[in-house]
Design goal:
Elements (H helix, E strand, L loop, with lengths): L2 H28 L7 H32 L6 H32 L9 H24 L1
Helix pairs in contact: 1-2, 1-4, 2-3, 3-4
Keywords: Membrane, Transmembrane, Transmembrane helix
Protein name: DUF4149 domain-containing protein
Organism: Gordonia rhizosphera NBRC 16068
């Protein structure tokens, strides 16, 4: 395995593990903990997801650099990486601002109608997880 492949593989699986742990384990469980109100859960979630997204951006950059400096046979690695990175970009640029506006309104006491942005974010997370699994398998093949 080349150094660029090793970096991409490590970044891929670290990124995958963080997304699964935070998005699919911590986030849903946080609101079930005793004493956690919606405002407290939203405050915690905003901090946690800000940190997760910063780490994700770092892993995406590491994978991108590894792809640029490495040589890859076939299209599986660049396509899978591209899908994962594209999902992250859409989440950060298009969906997170909507979620932030919604959480700002809830924290200010204005419930209003529920936002569908959360469902879109979760759907993008599922696509990103599938792409990262695909990328990890392609890197190890």
């Amino acid at each position: 395995m080349t150094a660029s492949a090793a970096v991409a593989t490590a970044a891929c699986f670290l990124w995958l593990g963080m997304v699964i742990a935070i998005s699919f384990v911590e986030a849903p469980l946080k609101f079930r903990a005793p004493g956690v109100t919606v405002p407290i859960g939203l405050g915690i979630g905003r901090l946690v997801f800000r940190a997760l997204n910063a780490m994700e951006a770092g892993w995406a950059i590491a994978i991108l650099v590894a792809l640029v400096v490495g040589s890859w046979s076939g299209m599986a690695v660049p396509v899978a990486a591209g899908v994962a990175i594209a999902m992250l970009v859409v989440q950060l640029v298009a969906v997170r601002p909507m979620l932030t506006r919604r959480s700002d309104a809830v924290l200010a006491g204005h419930e209003g109608p529920r936002s569908r942005a959360h469902i879109v974010y979760v759907a993008l997370e599922v696509v990103k997880v599938v792409a990262l699994i695909w990328l990890g398998i392609a890197l190890l093949a």
